[in-house]
Each structure stands twice: as C-alpha cells, then as structure tokens.
Amino acid sequence: MRIGGIILLGEELEPVEGYLCIRDNIIESIEEERCKEENLILPSFFNAHTHLGDSIIKDPPSIGLDELVKPPNGLKHRALKSVPRKKLVGAIKDSMESMIAWGCGGFADFREGGVGGVLVLREALEWVNGGGKNLVPIILGRPLADEVEDVLRVCDGLGISGYNDTPGVEGWSETCRKMGKILSIHAGEKDRSDIDGALSLEPDVMVHMVHATDSHLRTCADEGINVVVCPRSNMATGVGLPPIKRMIEMGIDVCIGTDNVMLSSPSLLDELSFCWYNLHIDERELLKMATWKGRRAFGLDGGVIEEGGKADVVVVNLDTKNMRNTTDPIRSVVRRCKPEDLRCVL
Length: 346
Ligand SMILES: [Zn+2]
Fold this sequence. Notes:
- This protein is globular.
- It is an alpha/beta fold.
- The protein starts with a strand and ends with a strand.
- It has helices at residues 65-69, 75-82, 85-101, 114-130, 148-154, 169-178, 195-200, 214-223, 231-236, 244-249, 268-279, 283-297, 329-336, and strands at residues 2-9, 14-23, 26-32, 39-43, 45-51, 104-111, 136-141, 157-160, 182-187, 205-208, 226-229, 254-256, 259-260, 313-317, 342-345.
- Helix 3 (85-101) packs across helix 4 (114-130), helix 4 packs parallel to helix 5 (148-154) and helix 11 crosses helix 13 (329-336).
- The strands form 2 sheets. It has a 9-stranded parallel sheet with strand order 12-11-10-9-8-7-6-5-13. Strands 3-2-1-4-14-15 form a 6-stranded mixed sheet, with no helix packed on it.
- Bound molecules: zinc ion.
- Zinc ion is lined by residues 49, 51, 110, 186, 207, 259.
C-alpha cells in the first residue's frame, strides 16, 4: 500500500511531503517527493486515560465529583453494580469502536470491578479486535478487597481511585511493584489533599493534577513520573483546568486522556481542540501528548512515523469542506478536525 500527503515524521512531527509505503502493517519506506494528494498523515492517537465501563451512562445529572464517581456509592459505582454483564460488554465495545473511528490506536483504562471487571473489558476487546482491528490496550485493574495479586495477574497494573479513599493502598502498591506492573493513581483532582500521599507511592503515572503546586510538579519531573491530563472531564466536574503549560515547562512528560465516558466522549479530536481553545497549548505539543507520549508513559513503543515502525497511522483528508484551504495542517487538525475528515485509520 502507498499513501501520499504531508507526513508528520518522527517524534518532532516534522511535516514532509511524500509517500508512505506499507507492507504487512510495517512502514517499509518513506519516499520524500512532490505529491498531489491532499492528505495529512499522522500517528494514531493513544487515549491515556479512560473509564470505558462508564459507557453504560451517557447523561449523568450535573452533580458533584464525589456523588458521580467516588467509590463505593457514587452514581457510576451503583450503575456498574446493577448492569447486566452482556449490556456492559456491549457498551464498552461501542466506545472502543468509536475510539478507532476517531483515530485512536490504543488506550489506558482504569477498570473497576476486580478480576471480573478486567475480564469484561477483555471480552469487549476480543470482540472488537476479532473483527480485524488492532486496538492496543493497557488495562489498569482495581481490586475488590484482598485480590490484588489475582487482579494483577490478568492485567497490566493498578488504576487506583485515590490515596485518601483506598485503605491499604501502600500494600497494593508494594505488591504491584513486586510483580513488575504499572502503578497509576488519580491525584489532585478535587483538591490537593491526596497529592503528597500519591507521590509517596512513587507511581509510574498520575492522573489529573489539576491542583498540583510547583513543588509537586518538580517531584514528578525529577522522578520521571508521567502525568495524564483530562481537561474536558475536569470542566464537566467543575474542578478547574490542569496547569498543562507549567507541567510542560517543568519538563514533565504530559499525556492526555478523555476520562469517564459518561462525562466526555472518548474522542481525542475533541479533547485536543478543547485544550487549544481553553489553554492555548502549542498544537504540535498537543499532538505529541496524544500520540507517542501517551504510549511511552505506559511502556509502549510506537506512536511515531518512521521507517521500520508500525503503520499505526491516521490519514486526514485535507480536501473536505471543513479542512480545505488550510495553510497549517498541524494547527487545523488540532483546532478543527472532525471524525468525518478522517479518510482512514490504519
Ligand atoms: Zn479517571
């Protein structure tokens, strides 16, 4: 297969005109030459924070964060307890297929419900990937009571609700480390009372950090802790916006996720434009956050267009009514690209 257009090459997403030659899902060569095709070819997205189980609720009332998501009795947890398994698998599958259609090649999910919860997600994923797709998962489980090792045996790591609402979290994180798995935790979402505790666990990835001080951010930068931001979710729950520019200035590897499906669609196109409109983050930096930085945070390679790399790419049609006359395709894809402007997702 040969696809032409403006190709965003390497980690710096350097625009080059030419053709990608793909064989057996690998980029065999990149031929730089003049080309008439009106495409922008970029690495597929990686959604670095989702709760796909929430796909069973699409329209929660405007209530506070704790009433919505705090375990064990927040709205989502009550809904998850009562939903039939088949309905849950189907709802998660719908969100996964939407993510692929919107340019996503992988995701990192906080999966509630212990071992059973992880297996539900795996069933939905097999259904999607069995249809010829290749959505790459990072599954971060959440134990019910004393099944930490059992959960870690069936997934990639822990996705902890928060330091203050998880009794025994130190023991969990110790087991996680011993088993060589990923430790990830929400922190600094509603306020900063749980950030020091979360940092004391030395996690691989922290999610939110809306209320982080410079001192917290310095610790993340010094210790190589990745931060995932979810700005639309933060606005939906009224907690404010994360200091993304400051995080980047301080040298943190920031990546981006869409958080609870009940609060915001799992669309990184929407998340990127929201970030630009509300925080004016540089568009190229936003694309790095949404592609290779997300994968790197969870120990995955890919998310970069290079010879010999996986052909995990999104082709944007620059000749639609929405995209035509762009003079800077990187800006345009971040600010205004819609799912209908995507020619294909490989
Ligand atoms: Zn979350």
